[in-house]
Amino acid sequence: MRHALWWLATLALAPLAVPLALRTRRTALRLPPAEGEVRGLAGAALPGEPFRLLLVGESTVAGVGVKHLDEALVACLAEALAERMQRPVRWHACGENGITAEQACQRLLPEVLNEPADLALLVFGVNDTTHLTTCKRWQAALRGMAVALRERGMVVAFSAVPPLQHFRALPWLLRQLLGWRASLLDRELRAVAREQQAQYCELSLAFEARYLAEDGYHPSALGYRVWAQGLAERLARAC
Fold it and tell me: Which residue among 18, 28, 197, 214 has its CA within the 20 to 30 Å range from the CA of 35?
């Protein structure tokens, strides 16, 4: 019923929303992925065997919004976990700008299945929201990744779908429609996390200008740090 209501509202507003979406796509500032190695080590001076952290996901895993991966979510999360766990954290970022969860199952998952990790964090939702991925395909993709990673002995966690209603790069009407859609996908993500006994991590980030990159869409270096701190607080307890 919730999804049906969204579709009804979107179809009714399509004459206004479609031109806005086309104009936004044409004029939006497009930032590249961050530079740097996709693997690294945080807390190298700490004792013990490194904890192995894997991130799989969309543009935020690729570090869009900052210049270097050392400033992006994966490195910030590794540093925060190393501080909390008091052990080194070896990290690997497997991300692609613009990718959906279903595409990641096909393209990214095969790249990481043979690489051992203790924790796999899946970061998806923005592209599935804007690509209007159906509920069935969204759930199937999340479930497929979670099952495959758990079979490799990894603890699996999901980051919440970002609230697109706060993305200031989008016109007001698109923010409302896409924010509503994102909340529906997040509800389904929570259900898959419960079903798969995976961690669900809320996105603890105020979407103020200082937390966003110049495109108004991706996190800034500060935004990534704050996001990572919230994730680490939850994940350190689960590992």
Answer: 28
CATH code at position 181: 3.40.50.1110
What are the DSSP calls for the chain, one per residue?
Answer: -HHHHHHHHHHHHHHHHHHHHHHHHHH---PPPPBS-SEEEE-TTS-SSPEEEEEEESTTTTTTTSSBGGGSHHHHHHHHHHHHHTS-EEEEEEE-TT--HHHHHHHTHHHHTTS--SEEEEE--HHHHHTT--HHHHHHHHHHHHHHHHHTT-EEEEEPPP-GGG-TTS-HHHHHHHHHHHHHHHHHHHHHHHHTT-EEE-------GGGB-TTSSSB-HHHHHHHHHHHHHHHHHH-
Structural domain of residue 123, as residue ranges? 33-238
Kindly state whether residue 17 falls inside one of the protein's structural domains.
no
pLDDT tens sequence across 32-91: 999 999 999 999 999 999 999 999 999 999 999 999 999 999 999 999 999 999 999 999
pLDDT, tens only, 83-115:
999 999 999 999 999 999 999 999 999 999 988
Answer yes or no: is 13 within a domain: no
